[in-house]
Amino acid sequence: MHIVDGALSNPVVIGGAVSAVGGIAMGLRNLPLERIPAAGVLSASFFVASLIHVPIGPSSVHLILNGLAGLVLGWAAFPALFVGLLLQAVFFGFGGLTVLGVNAVNIALPAVLVGLMFRPLVARGSPLQGAIWGGIGGGAAIAFTTLAVAVSLMLSGDEFILAAKLVFFSHIPVMLIEALLSGAAIFLARRVKPELFVDTKGSLA
Fold this sequence. Notes:
Helix content is 69%, strand content 3%. It is mainly α. The relative contact order is 0.17.
C-alpha cells in the first residue's frame, strides 16, 4: 500500500505532509500514558505485517492491520502507524521519505475513521458481537486505504488511473484477510483485556 518516491505530484506530496502533521499532533493529544504500550505493540505489528509485500505499479499489496490499530487506539493510531512507516522508509526503503506524509495519511486516516465508526460498537455487547464489528472495521479500513491511495495517484496524473484501479482490485483479498484477523484479535482482546475499549474517563469507547 506504500506509494514510492517520485510517483506523486508536488501538490499531493505537500498536502499529504501538512495533513500528516495535523494527524500526528491530534493523535499525540489523544494518547494517554496507559495506552503507549498498546500503541507500541500495534505499531510493531503494522511494521512486521507489511514487510512482506508484492509490488503493484507505483504501490504494493500487503497486510496493514490499520483497522485493528484504529479500533484500539482511535486518533492515537496516527502517530503509531507513522512511526512504523518512518522506520520502514529509513531502514528498508519502503515507500520513501518524500511521500511519507501521503503514505501516513492514506494508512492512518482510515484507521482513525474506522475507530470513530466502529469502536463504540466493538466495545458493547458480547466478545463475539465485538469481533463481528471488528472484522467489518478491519475490512473497511483496507477499503478506505485503497481508495485513498487510488485518489492520491489519480490526482498526480491521468497516467496513474490504470494503476489506481489495479491497486484497489488487488486489495480485495487483503480486505477479507484483514477482516478475519481483526475480528479474531478483537475477540481475544475483549475476552482478555476489555479495558482497551474503555476510554480514560471510564466509559465505553
